[in-house]
Amino acid sequence: MQPATATTLRKQVGEGPVGVASRPRFRPTRTMWLYLIGVAVLYASGLVYAAAHGLSVRSLYLYGLLQPPGIAGEEARLVEIVTPISWNIPQVLCFIYIKAAAVLVELLQYWVIGMLIAAALIVFVSWEKVKAKMGYGGFKANFLATTVGAIIPICSCGIVPVLAGMVEVGIPLGPTMAFLVAAPMLNVPTVFMTAGVLGWPMAVGRILATFGIALTVGEALSRWQRKHRNPRRFLKIHVPPRLSPDLQQFAFRFGMLAVKNPEGVQAGQLGAGAEAKLELLEEGGLVEITRAGLWKLAENETAEIKDVGACALLPVGGTVEGGLVEKFAEMFRMGLRLFIQLNGYLLLAVLIAGAIKVLLPTGLITDWVGGKALNSMLLASVITGLAYVCTYVEVPTALALMSKGMGPGSTLAYLLGGPGLSLPSIAMLSGVFRPKVLALYVGVSFLGCIAAGYLYNLFV
Amino acid sequence: MHNMNEAKRVIQLYYLPQSFPCGPQSSCCGPVGQSDEELRNYMIEVETLLPGVRVQTIDVSKKLNLGRDLPAVKLLNTFGPAACPIFALNSEVISIGPPSMPELVELVKAKLAAQGPAEASTRISSSGV
Q: Who contacts A34 (Cβ-Cβ below 8 Å, separation ≥6)?
């Protein structure tokens, strides 16, 4: 028996194989199938309703509006059939359903294109190489992390396991936070959705604002972490990092010395080059240095150990091995997989959009978040801070709010803050981050949303 | 005297029962912990190469004895499941992570020799895996 062979070591450090053949086979759950059927039925309902009532199919595809044919100009984006609110609950629900169906007909095309582009990125770009380039932090790494976050479709709902996974692979906190800010705020499908539904200026504004906010948060944390290397100062959870076999062996050697000498160990006791390795372990939250300059095992009373895999939505390993045909085949498989996995959010998105269109009185929105005043952005950011708007839900709801009179700057603030900043997501993240980090994240995001909205109104 | 020497000849093997964090038999996050077969192999090897030594397996996912197991608890607290298996002799940790068996055996022999000659007692078969 060879207990310490490469195979067993790989097993111990949890290093999974890569390539098409080794990817775990995806089996949709019953709920996923139900959502898929729901999407199909809702989509068909929109088309059937428009055909049965002689409404414009073009308006349905272009604007998601149920309107009579022959309307042109500005009116083409505003006029819709009347769906009055009343105590006739079944009728109101029916209106919500049919308006949701209309939004879905418009949205689905952008959704599919976005998913395919996202799948292509996952298949053709090596996630591990991207990670390797992030380094310690700083502008370059933060920019790279923001870009990765902005192109990979990770839903804001799955952000906590993703965070654990990023810490697990040793990505510094600056890039991690930049990624976490960017991932729910922006990704390829939502850019296309925003451009298609709300126009390219709004999509560009969204891209620029997301980068601005993510880079600011990332830079602040990179500077912070340079002063305090141990991630336990920033994180409530501690995920033991995956170390290379060499560093792992060194860490274990240190561990054996440290348990014998609880007061601390001198780096010199571990041979040449030990200081640098110990600093690396300190960054991983495994060891800490005392005031006397002795190294000891990191105290872990307040940090909870989580052994969390982050493969829920993250691409695994490197790029797909094989020829171009295999890569394209995998791209379509991945696109279909993402589509099936995220149908639930799509349904939720369009139903919320339908409900807003029917239930929200125009006067309320136009009075409070209409126009270009600064208080409109402030209020839009506060509203998004209270409501939970999952990624992919924000575009159709923004469309509905805009059609009800929300100003363009406020809409941008809503698009940014909706998925990234909401009470439920802040509550989830409070289980991961220490209060100072959370305050920084929420504060910069909140102010960033307001500033972005205000600037958008000035320049567009 | 017999009991004292026998106590010296017990090696604690701290292990984590194998699990698959991302679902049954999934490979994406790799299996975590030791399989029954791995454990059995460790025990057979140690007990064959070190006659008179008994391997006591301790499941770290269950409640540990903070007196006897404190060093292992500290290591697990810091390194997590990657630290398993941990071999300890009289609460002194002698190996962390997948061991090189020849080195481990030499180390145990040296430690036992330092503790004095052991009685040529009968081997106690291990159980519990």
A: none
pLDDT tens, position by position, B38-91: 899 999 998 898 888 889 999 888 878 878 888 888 888 888 777 889 999 888
Task: Test B82 with A1 for CB contact under 8 angstroms.
Answer: no
Which residue's entry shows tokens 């007061």?
A263
User: Cβ contact (<8 Å) for A256 and B78?
Assistant: no
Cβ contact (<8 Å) for B81 and A240? Answer: yes
d(CA B129, CA B127): 6
Give the gap in angstroms from C-alpha B25 to the nearest C-alpha of chain A. 9
Q: Which of A82, A207, A205 lies closest to A147, judged by CA?
A: A207
Q: Could you tell me which residue, A156 or A210, shows the higher pLDDT?
A: A210
What's residue A16's pLDDT?
32
Residue given tokens 């912070």 in the structure block:
A224
CB A347 within 8 A of CB A39: yes
> Is residue A407 very low, low, confident or very high in pLDDT (cuts 50, 70, 90)?
confident
SS3 B57: strand
Chain B residue numbers with beta carbons less than 8 Å from the beta carbon of A16 are: 27-30
Strands A304-305 and A287-289: unpaired
Q: What is the pLDDT of residue A239?
A: 55
ipTM: 0.73
| Residue B10 main-chain phi, psi, to 5 deg | -100, 125
Q: What are phi and psi of A391, to 5 degrees?
A: -55, 145
Q: Is the pLDDT of residue A238 over 70?
A: no
In angstroms, rounded to a whole number, what is the distance separating the alpha carbons of residues B11 and B72? 13
Q: Is the pLDDT of residue A7 over 70?
A: no
Q: Is B80 left (phi over 0), alpha (psi -120 to 50) or beta?
A: left
Kindly determine whether residue A256 and residue B22, on different chains, have CB atoms separated by under 8 Å: no
> Chain A residues with CB inside 8 Å of B30's CB?
10-11, 13-16
When CB atoms are compared, the residue of B77, B96, B100 closest to A256 is B96
Cα–Cα nearest to A216, from A134, A146, A166: A146
All residues of chain A having their beta carbon less than 8 Å from the beta carbon of residue B97 are 12, 248-249, 252
Q: Do B92 and A260 lie within an 8 Å CB cutoff?
A: yes
Pairing of strands A237-238, A304-305: parallel
Tokens at A66, concatenated: 């149920």
A252 CA: distance to closest CA in chain B (Å): 6
Tell me the HSE value of A189 on the side-chain side, using a 13 A CA sphere: 31
Q: What is the pLDDT of residues A293-349, one digit of tens each?
A: 899 888 654 444 433 333 323 333 344 556 788 788 878 887 787 778 778 777 887
Q: CA angle, corner A177, sides to A175 and A179, nearest 5?
A: 65
Write the DSSP assignment of A418-455 as a string of letters: HHH--HHHHHHHHTTB-HHHHHHHHHHHHHHHHHHHHH
| Smallest CA–CA distance from A13 into chain B, residue | B82
Whether residue A427 has pLDDT greater than 90 = no
Decide: pTM greater than 0.90.
Answer: no
Q: Which range, of A17-21, A118-122, A206-210, B111-115, averages the lowest pLDDT?
A: A17-21
Question: Which residues in chain B have their CB less than 8 angstroms from residue A297's CB?
Answer: 74-75, 77-78
